[in-house]
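call fold(seq) -> tokens
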Amino acid sequence: RRVHGEFQKILMANTLSAGILLFFLFAFIRCPDPYEGNPFYVDESSVVKGDYKWEMKLKNRHAATKDTANPEILLAAVSIQSLDSKVVRIKMNDANAVRWEVKLANPNPGKDYKPELLKKMGFEYQSEPFGFQIIDPATTEIVVSTFKGTNSSLKCYDKYLELGMWYNSKRAFGLGERVTPQFELCTTRDWCTYTIFSRDEASPLDNGDPPGGKQDYGHQPFYMIQLKSGLFIGTLVLNSNDQDVILGKTPRDTLNVYHKMIGGIFDVYFFYPGTADNVLKKYHSLIGKPYLPPLWSLGFHLCRYGWPNLNYVKDVVAKMEAADIPLDIVWADIDYMKDYADFTIDNVRYAGLGEFVNSLHSKSMKWVPIIDAGLKYDRNDKYFKLGEEHGAFIKSAFTKRTLIGKVWPGLAVFPDWMEPYAAQLWHIGLGDLYDQAQFDGIWIDMNEVSNFCDGECKESLENIDSNLRMPQSDASDPHDPREFDSLPYYPGSKGPNEKTLSMTGYHKSTNDDEDRLYKEYNLHSLWTLYEAKATNSFFEQKKKRPFVLTRSSFPGSGMYTSKWLGDNFAMWEYMRYSIGGMYNFQMFGLPLVGADMCGFILDTTEELCARWMQMGAFYPFSRNHNDIHSKPQEPYVFGERVAKASRNALRQKYSILRYYYTKLF
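ret:
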């Protein structure tokens, strides 16, 4: 009793202190928000249901945000549409403002599709919080869901979007572009982060380790999940902005997939369960079926960055012939250019190139040169002057004039494909080069776009105007140079300007009301698609079957170009990794694909090159190519062992070449 009395005294003496403490606890410790993961619910009065399309508005339970730099979207417009009995599209946009959205490059998307009644497709939605799920009509199995209880999410801010979905399996494939140890994603961890954004990175190995950021050249936001039934469901989240995709495996062998993007909209296509082949046929019909390259492109290609002059190249061709190793296509890296400038030939080191190309043609051989993304910044240069005159280059938000970066020729400018004259300028340059040496194909490189400094180079600004000062932010300016100085989320924990152009760089808009949307921030990963289209159309104008090879890519690129896997390493591991890389690009709709045989970076070995020539001969695209800093690796340099391995493997491929060609249809 005495102890109890003492306790009462202590309690009463500290009542005031306890009350103050509780006040501060409630004031500063926020209670969990039941709508934190998904504050959206369906406004039932807005629902309109047709046979093939449902539309509705989603309201946000959160109050208007005070964050003017990244306001939350409070009213969303959703459409759910049956495109085919096996394809459903879910599109979610801001109901009160125009946002950037990607238009499919395919002029007739899904022309083979036949819509089905939505109510027969096993599609359901939940009103509060908003969610959807797909039930496979054939098995009555839920295959994907964002319903409550699936750890899904839906967040919509101006510069941050998040969509979390649950899949009834844990096996995932796709999400390019990256080098992975296995074709299947996320095989060594329970949680993996994969960044998607075109960037010039020399093939870093990507195990999905957080925080991501180990992607390389292309932007391919398509993936397939293999269900427990063995069938596959395909998903395309059509968005061109910098983004992370996070895969999380659950104890029940299912998968949560979280898409985190810093712009655009949600535009999601689901391809219903089927065999991998059937799912991919539906996907390729949507984004555009691959173009048909010439038959000769399946032959053996040889290149090196570092062939110093034309006599050296002639000697390479002669030695290949002497070693009796088949050679169909001779390539030219940037060595042939004058000062590394596009559309030029060094008439000292490569004098007589046109006659040499004609001699290749007389032997039924072909010649393919490289063209880089950046045109030389030179006020006396023909292409620079034409581009400036017609406003055909990407503009700087800092100077309101042509944006200047740096690549191989030094300071460089970059075509703005939104300006129609840019494609015309490209054709003029290609035509000038063709008049000097009649190439048979074009290799488009550095087209992520790559930049040797982050954003805009300081020396480029100084060269234009030494009095330029960094401007202050101006909210009324549709091209505010400070707009992306601070972002709420950084995919891959990297700034989006790293190794590329400034995200505030801007393009021509066809609609004055949407000027603010036509920025590198939104269009960056699309640059390669429009470049490939312009290059492909040059061959069509020449009445020649196009052959274009690209490093970067986007959904739909396969309509215009083929693909190689970029700068790899002369290592056994990278020979193995190339197999998964080629499988990925078969999925992405670029079937003529291959890796640099024997490796591009580092010195190869006789054994590695022999084995890689044997395997690489059966790549769809077979090219031996390496770097100026590595030792030469033409197949004859190692002696008869590698020569024989190359000779036998290539001839075996030739014996089934026409079968290969039918697989490109």
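The chain has a mean pLDDT of 92.
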